[in-house]
Amino acid sequence: MLEKRGTELLRSLPAVHRLLDHPVCRELAEAHGHKLVSTAAGDMIGEVRAGILQGDETVETNLDMLADRVAERVKKQFQMNYRAVVNATGVVLHTNLGRAPLADAAVDAIERTARGYTNVELNLQTGERGSRYSHVEELICELTGAEAALVVNNNAAAVLLVLTEMAKGKSVIISRGQLVEIGGSFRVSEVMKASGANLVEVGTTNKTHEYDYERAIDDDTALILRVHTSNFRVVGFTYQPELSDLVALAHARNVPVYEDLGSGSLFDLRAHGIGDEPTVRETVRAGVDICSFSGDKLLGATQAGIIVGKQEYIKRIKKNQLTRALRVDKLTLAALEATLRLYLDEDLAKRDNPTLWMLLRTPDSMGPEAERLQAGLAAVFGDAADVQVEPGFSQVGGGSLPTEELPTWHVTVRSRQFSLNALEQSLRHVPLPVMTTMRKEAIHFDVRTIFPREIPAVVESVRDAFARLG
Ligand SMILES: *Cc1c(COP(=O)(O)O)cnc(C)c1O
């Protein structure tokens, strides 16, 4: 039997139709549709009633409050799982965080083309069917010095496609030191198997000589594959032939050379004291027949695999049936073309390509942002934490330049009274999650990968996350 209070509560519970008539619910129905709102309202009233029947006397039956709770439910259903986050890790090309952030020009290009129709496969000059690759091919050739180019879904797809077209049922020679695994279980040896090519390993883990390649070439050889060891370094007693020497010996035996560059930079970072990555132009100039690289690593565009090389080979690859399955979508093309155009002027690329801009930030240039963030966070925590600016190192990431350490500023938070683990976790549950690193009893915010425009929002996210600790 219900107590008297319970009976009163049941009686004061509004009918679903009355709740739906509330201005808040009407507005919700306008935005999200009547069906979802009435389901949410019905479910909630049902739950409140069940609570009362079980003797819960603390339930709320006030109409305004119930309407707000319906709004909360409906909004939760529309909250995106896939969201923007702040990268405070200092890893510029963070694969789990989507690698390269796009340039404004690329975002604008997506915006301009996404809402309506485009000339993706239309030749506007002739009015006839066109090729989706034509929009970027000339530009890629201009920027790399290659004869021809093709863009596919990603560089893993590029490797699969090139090996399938060039070497299916034949053999491919590769140095043992280059049989690498790249993040996400992409193994060169496995891709080779999938393509139907036979792997011929030469040399040793640390040393492969010209003669190792020479001896391995026979009538069955379709290709020499070089894989740029982009995500690790073998140091000490090592040897690999110069690319141009390898090309010379391969061409003397009529064997084409394919270089999987991995990152593939169009910008010479070495000139700025960063890494030892060859540019795509240099690789092409060394005479390789085919070369492929990612769109969203050092290039700083969207996920894509760019294949450049000699016309005769690119022509064949374009005709392969797999190309259709690995094709690049129209939004990627928009972002890629806009990003590539920035490279027509190096200064423009440095300024507007966020990947390059972040890589080239110096501690001096980041100082004011470090101080702004430190002041904002110090105000959030008050006496609860010690907030400092300390020197640290950022990483390039994305399997690029693994040993490179870029000097940076870390804003560090050391707790005086709360759990740092709880704060780190809470920072992932706020509407704008902030990804940090935890080191030596402190949460680190690396300033390098936080856009200056994000700093006020980071402070708000931290305020929110801290408040949620209770
Ligand atoms: C990253 C990488 C790939 C894979 O490129 P995705 O664009 O991520 O598919 C292939 N080869 C090398 C050497 C790489 O570094």
Automatic annotation (TrEMBL):
Gene3D superfamilies: 3.90.1150.180, Type I PLP-dependent aspartate aminotransferase-like (Major domain)
Assigned GO CC terms: cytoplasm
Domain L-seryl-tRNA selenium transferase N-terminal: 10-49
Record PTM N6-(pyridoxal phosphate)lysine, positions in chain: K297
EC number of the protein: 2.9.1.1
Family stated for the protein in its record: Belongs to the SelA family.
Full protein name: L-seryl-tRNA(Sec) selenium transferase
Lineage: Bacteria, Bacillati, Bacillota, Bacilli, Bacillales
Gene responsible for this protein: selA
